[in-house]
Specification:
The chain is α/β, with parallel strands linked by helices. It has eight helices and six strands, in the order H-E-H-H-E-E-H-H-E-H-E-H-E-H. A six-stranded mixed beta sheet has the order 3-2-1-4-5-6, sandwiched between helices.
Amino acid sequence: MSCASAQACELALVLAVDVSGSVNPHEYQVQMKGLGAALADGAVSEALVVAQAKVMLIQWTGSSRQIVSVPWTQVTDFDAADALAARVGGATREWRSFSTAIGEAVGFSLQQFVQVPECGRRVIDVSGDGVSNEGVPPQELKASALRDGVTINGLAIEASDTGLVEYYRRFLISGPGSFAMQASNFEEYPDRIRQKLLREITKQVALVK
């Protein structure tokens, strides 16, 4: 992939994963293993390499509880893609008993892009299983995201909240081409996150929501 390795970073992507108290240990593993498998998928990894993407993993829950689990990592080739997938899939859980502060997660994610000013696009990929119930409301971060040229997309895991995808569409997503997708339960998450990553990385806008 020598032609790809000579390119500049086209995409900076923050993967922001919900680890609040509503996510049990099995569901956490389904999320992380599913996200790791999605990153290792041939179509996804090729798209990351072509974009020379820089990817970061963040775990988030209540206010003041957001942490970088995998720092910015550039996917320069397929070996780098595989290494990133392994790190994400094996990430240790940081918290398990706190609230759902989506706005705080978005604000923390926005701060990370100062480290990658060379990347052409900036995207935050938020996944979670509940509405925000602590901290700054996510809709209050939309203006900041737009100002900074950041697109916010969402994957709503509707295991216990069947209206979550509409909540994401109304209060979370922001920016040109932004979208929210639905997983009816955690078992659907691995397939849906793969679809979501492909859509984000390749800028396809005609896929089924």
